[in-house]
Amino acid sequence: MTKNLLTLVSLTLAGLAATGSATARPSRRQADSDFFFTEYDIARPDSSNGFETCSDDDCENGKWRGLEDDEGGADICGSFSASEVGYRIAGDDSSNVRYKCNDTVQPLIVHYTENNFEMGVFWIHTISQTWDNTPSTRKRDFTPLTFQNRVISAFNSECRPNLPLAITVTDASGVTQTVNGTDDISTPVPDALPASVRIDIDGGDSFADMVIPGPEKVLIQFGGDNSEANCFDGLQLAIADLS
After folding, report:
1. If you compute the radius of gyration of the chain from its CA atoms, what whole number of angstroms results?
2. pTM of the full predicted structure?
3. What is the biggest distance separating any 2 CA atoms in the chain, rounded to whole angstroms?
C-alpha cells in the first residue's frame, strides 16, 4: 500500500509592528514566544465509502467507526481539538494512518510589539492522505512529521499600495538570504534548521522576529506502509494598517 502525504503549512500575520532596532535578531526569550494560534487540519479520505476513523482513546484502544458521508475532516493540537486522529480502510488495520500531537514541541517562536500595525499569528497546517488498493504488511511506528519545499511569504492585505517589504532568513550554518520587494514577496525556508526569520515593513518601521526550531507537533504512524511522507510547509505574513 502506497501512501502519499501532502501537507501545507501557513503562518498568517494580520498587521505587524515593533519598536526597537531594525537590525535586532530574535535573541530574547528563545524558549518562549508571544502568542500565536496553532492548528493542524487533517483532511478526510477522498471517499467515505469503506473508510473508518478514530480519535483520542478510541485510537489507542483500537475502536474504529464508519466514516459518515457528510463528515468533515478533523484537527489536532488545538485548544479544543483531539490529540490523536486516525483513518483506515474498513477492517484493514494495516492501512491505518494515525496522527498524534506531541505537546512537548515548540514549532515556532515569534516576538512582536504593536505600533502602526496589529498582528495575529496563525501556524496552520493542512494534511491529506491517499490510499491505493494494494495492502502491505510493513509498519512504521509514530515518527515526527517532516516538511519539505517550504516557503515564507509576506503580502500586503489592507495597507496602501507599494508597501516596502523585506524578509531575511538565516539558517543554522549562518547563511543569510534577504529578499526585498513591495506588497507580495516570498523566499524558501532553508533546510538547515533552526533558522531565524526577520520580516521588515516599510524600511523597518514595523517588524517581527521569528525562530523556526525545526520539529513539528505532529507524529504520524503508518499501520502497514513505511514509505516516506511528502510534506510541504510555509510561513505567510498578511499586513493590515491600523491608521
Report:
1. 20
2. 0.71
3. 61
* Beta-carbon contacts of residue 151 (< 8 Å; ≥ 6 apart): 186, 187, 188, 189, 233, 234, 235
pLDDT in tens, 194-210: 999 998 888 888 888 88
> Phi then psi for 55, rounded to 5 degrees?
-150, 150
How many angstroms separate the first and last alpha carbons of the chain? 55
Cell of 88: 483506515
The Cα 169–Cα 178 span in angstroms is 6
Pick the closest to residue 43 from 130, 102, 123, 103 (CA basis).
130
Residue 197: CB atoms within 10 A of its CB come to 25
Domain boundaries, the chain: 5-239
**Single-letter code of the amino acid located at 234:** G
pLDDT-based confidence at 26, cuts 50/70/90?
very low
Burial 137-154 (b: 16+ CB within 10 A, else e): eeebeeeebbbeebebbb
